[in-house]
């Protein structure tokens, strides 16, 4: 048996409220829109992962979702320019990631990161 993928499911009264956020900030594409559910995807392939944590690192709360990007500084610039709430400012962490937390339109805390190495 092999896990093929893991999908995050966020409850939202209006899924469309998050559409512009995920499309414009993270360049994700809507691959399914049934009205009651929007599914976003990227062309990149990655191994399924699931993290269980008691904290988010550096004393932060555990984020709802971690999203690895190729240029965290660019996403940070976009987030600031769009006026999105930054929950944990951009920082180089001692375990080799550069990251920041922000809040999406649904109130979820996202950990946006790039690996330093």
Could you walk me through the main structural features you see in this protein, from its secondary elements to its overall organization?
This protein has one domain: Roll (2,3-Dihydroxybiphenyl 1,2-Dioxygenase, domain 1), CATH 3.10.180.10. The strands form two sheets. Strands 3-6-5-4 form a four-stranded mixed β-sheet, with helices on one face. It is α+β, with helices and mostly antiparallel strands. It has helices at 19-26, 72-82, and strands at 29-33, 38-41, 65-68, 86-92, 97-103, 109-115.
Shape: globular
| Cα gyration radius (Å) | 14 Å
Q: Biggest sheet, in brief? A: 4 strands, mixed
Q: What is the percentage of strand-forming residues? A: 25-35%
Helix percentage:
10-25%
Strand tally, please? 6
- Count of runs of 4 or more consecutive helical residues: 2
Total domains, how many? 1
Chain-averaged pLDDT:
96
The gist of it:
This protein is an alpha+beta fold. The chain is 16% helix and 29% strand. The protein has helices spanning 19-26, 72-82, and strands at 29-33, 38-41, 65-68, 86-92, 97-103, 109-115.
Layout of secondary structure:
Blueprint: H1 19-26, E1 29-33, E2 38-41, E3 65-68, H2 72-82, E4 86-92, E5 97-103, E6 109-115
Parallel strand pairs: 3-6
Antiparallel strand pairs: 1-2, 4-5, 5-6
């Amino acid at each position: 048996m092999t896990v093929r993928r893991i999908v995050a499911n966020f409850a939202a009264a209006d899924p469309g409220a998050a559409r512009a956020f995920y499309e414009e900030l993270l360049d994700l594409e809507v691959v399914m829109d049934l009205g009651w559910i929007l599914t976003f995807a990227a062309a990149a392939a990655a191994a399924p992962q699931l993290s269980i944590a008691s904290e988010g690192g550096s004393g932060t709360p555990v984020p709802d979702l971690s999203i690895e990007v190729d240029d965290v500084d660019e996403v940070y610039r976009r987030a600031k320019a769009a006026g999105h709430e930054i929950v944990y400012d951009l920082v180089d962490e001692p375990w080799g990631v550069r990251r920041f937390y922000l809040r999406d339109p649904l109130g979820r805390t996202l950990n946006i990161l790039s690996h330093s190495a």
